[in-house]
Design goal:
heterodimer; A: mainly beta; six-stranded mixed sheet; four-stranded antiparallel sheet; 12 strands; 0% helix; B: mainly beta; seven-stranded mixed sheet; 11 strands
């Protein structure tokens, strides 16, 4: 089954710092990759997704991610974070047949004003 | 309308109670999902419905009973729950075909506390 792994589960940084969260996926042929964000007390929101095409994906709220096939990676980036980016970030991949969405363990990001 | 709604937002129940969680979407999605999420953990898939038929049951205990009355509604019936079942229960929906449309839209969840 396809799966993703996330590292550095707890990230603390100051406002205006750059953020990069790693996500590695297991090889399974076709890829469907997502980054979701969950702000404190709120529901999961889709930041961006990749199915095919341009490997540099632009998402909402100034986030982007780059799909690098040779590294099996789909890392999330934001050049300059704000306090409001404090949240839990989940990478996920979708099963080809079952619509089963497999999440990574998540990154808890805290931005200090 | 790109919204998945869930009711109630919060639910407190005893171990002998029977209650139901409700989920609704009007995006024309024919796949609907129940997830369970513990604090600081990723969502865990419980059930998947496709075209109103149960297609995946992730070995969920029978005290959780899903129901899909029609293409817009999804219920989760709860009976004889345990305190460890306390969690955020998320509903999601998606299209069923075409890779580009398999994005899952999540509802705000029901925060369940079992006493």
């Amino acid at each position: 089954a396809q799966s993703v792994s996330q590292h550095n589960h707890h990230v603390i940084l100051s406002e205006a710092a750059s953020l990069e969260l790693g996500c590695n996926y297991s090889y399974g042929g076709t890829v469907n990759l997502f980054w979701y964000v969950q702000y404190p007390g709120q529901h999961l929101q889709l930041l961006l997704k990749y199915f095919s095409g341009d490997p540099l994906v632009k998402g909402i709220k100034g986030f982007e991610a780059e799909f690098i096939k040779s590294k099996f990676s789909f890392n999330l980036r934001k050049p300059s974070v704000q306090w409001s980016d404090t949240a839990e970030y989940f990478c996920a991949t979708l099963g080809k047949v079952s619509n089963r969405l497999a999440f990574g363990k998540g990154n808890q990001v805290v931005v200090i004003p | 309308d790109t919204e998945v709604t869930q009711t109630p937002k919060h639910l407190v129940m005893g171990m002998t109670n029977k209650k139901s969680l409700k989920c609704e979407q009007h995006m024309g999605h024919r796949a609907m999902y129940w997830y369970k999420q513990k604090a600081k953990k990723p969502p865990e898939l419980m059930f998947v419905y496709s075209y109103e038929k149960l297609s995946i049951n992730e070995s969920v205990p029978s005290r959780f009973s899903p129901e899909c009355p029609n293409s817009s509604l999804l219920n989760l019936h709860l009976h004889a729950l345990q305190p460890e079942d306390s969690a955020l229960y998320l509903c999601a929906s998606s299209h069923t075909s075409g890779r580009a449309y398999n994005e899952q839209f999540f509802g705000p969840g029901t925060r369940l506390t079992v006493l």
